[in-house]
């Protein structure tokens, strides 16, 4: 009997030692489960925000053109409230101060032509008149498309693109531009009282022989549902793993409590041995 007690005590000690790392594993797994669920919920919320943003932009793009914000309102112009608004502006182009910004469009590689528009109130607005291929980079190749005098431009209000493009910074001193950075272009071209945004001219503002307008690409990646399903799937896979691991361990512990040492046949073996002893003593 004492031998059985010793074996049982050793087994209990072994189980306690094994339970310590399992406890930490359980805590970490539960924390990971909560984090994965939270990430999934966050992506669902992001998806709702993105769908609302897309709807707002669609309404702005297809609304009738409105005059651009007045200079007094320039400090409050923001991407959230104003970008992609359909606007109109009147003035005179300063063709001798145009800036070419490298671009790749459905028409191929080339340049955006950004030209300052001088307004009657003395302020200036940069207008992205459109795209020209590399062979028409020189302004002398498209003089027929440069209108003189007063013009009315309609297009989409766009926010400035500071510093440069992806992995490529603007180099104003060498006239290399990879983004439409309004402040930097204005400083380089000696412009004053310039709006903090620019206008993407639409196709209706295009002139014969001039840049190709109306090429604004409006794209909002919306992969939030896929991300959410991924986080939720990982969370439930982790939960399933925990159930299999610790559920199986609980089942084995219950069997250990109800079965004697040596397995389910031990009682029968001991009973048979005891019976033999009784017979021999008789």
Nutshell version of this structure?
The chain has helices at 2-62, 79-82, 182-189, 224-258, 266-281; strands at 66-67, 86-93, 99-105, 108-118, 124-133, 150-159, 164-165, 168-169, 194-201.
What radius of gyration results from the CA coordinates? 37 Å
The number of helices is 5
How many domains make up the 3D coordinates?
2
In the sheet with the most strands, the strands line up as 2-4-5-9-6
Largest sheet: 5 strands, mixed, barrel
Q: What is the number of beta strands?
A: 9
Would you tell me the structural class of the helices and strands?
Answer: alpha+beta
Topology order in helix (H) and strand (E) letters: HEHEEEEEEEHEHH
Strand percent estimate: 15-25%
What is the overall pLDDT average?
83
* CATH topology annotation of the largest domain: OB fold (Dihydrolipoamide Acetyltransferase, E2P)
Distance between the termini: 25 Å
Q: Which CATH class of the largest domain applies here? A: Mainly Beta
CATH architecture of the largest domain: Beta Barrel
Shape: elongated
Helix content range of the residues, please?
40-55%
Low-pLDDT runs of 5+ residues are 266-282
Organism: Bradyrhizobium japonicum
Transmembrane segments: 23-42, 225-246
Main location: membrane
Protein name: SURF1-like protein
